[in-house]
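Q: Focus on the shape:
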Amino acid sequence: MTVDALTDVSGLRVGHATRTGDGWLTGTTVVLAPEGGAVAAVDVRGGGPGTKETDALDPRNVVRTVEAVVLTGGSAYGLDAASGVMAWLEERGRGIRVGADPAHVVPVVPAACVFDLGRGGDFRARPDAATGRAAVEAAAASEPGAPVPQGCVGAGTGAVTGVVKGGVGSASTVLGSGITVAALVVANAAGSTVDPETGVLYGELFEGRRVEYPGAEVHAAAQRRLAQTAARSTPPPLNTTLAVVATDADLSKPQAQKLAGTAHDGIARAVRPVHLLNDGDTVFALSTGDRALDAADPLALNEILAAGADMVTRAIVRAVRAAEPVDGPGGAWPSYGELYAGR
């Protein structure tokens, strides 16, 4: 049985830590790999990224696997969340062995952040090491293959896409070969996910199904509402869409990096404009290695690359559809579901 989420890749678990109220609107999401780690790579295309340990994932460098990936709010301050995840892993002896003592490990925990500072009203309310520990503990406590909470949770708590509330979304597919490809995103883009001419979500145009367009009156009312709330919410246009794309196929680091790169196409289908100088768009790729690729077919990776981009697009649509509206001291951001009720 599948849950149409990142956890359909066997061995991967997802945990969220969410902080709201009293000036807070932020959180952290952790993707926990199976013990022993997963092959990992990254591709950064935004002009203003906030990241940690991404250089370690370069295929030219020695690190091959990671134990966890951290996605967090709080801009660069929120990268402290990775320290809490590292401490939790070290306590369990998980990481790269650096000595004869099994306890002497260095967990490599790549991380990337989104900008959500001040969206809850308090600029200093942002994730820290304790937030990261709470998220990894939630991941570890979850059942294998558990559904992934989506919407305004974890790193998507304070996420915004354009002037519409964003959040966390996830999706998966099983290819004809039996290989699973899945994605988890934090949709927090400077660009919009909504076509201003029609009100349809850009990403839905690529989902391979008939698109139901909002009625003219509904769309006009939504546009008026957005104009009203935009005047109340004028944070710096500093945003980022983050994604983790995963597969159970046995990929090398270069192959995983290719997967991370092509998965950015999935963002470009769902967000316009994308990869701006004030975005930090970052995609991580993970491979658990449970299923071999056809070694006789040099193009066997292609269907995984295509599916990765498709899953990112679908996950962004789900993130926006699952988000709930926010109206607080830090600003007001309607949800897509509120603007286009019943669609």
About this structure: The radius of gyration is 19 Å. The chain has a mean pLDDT of 94.
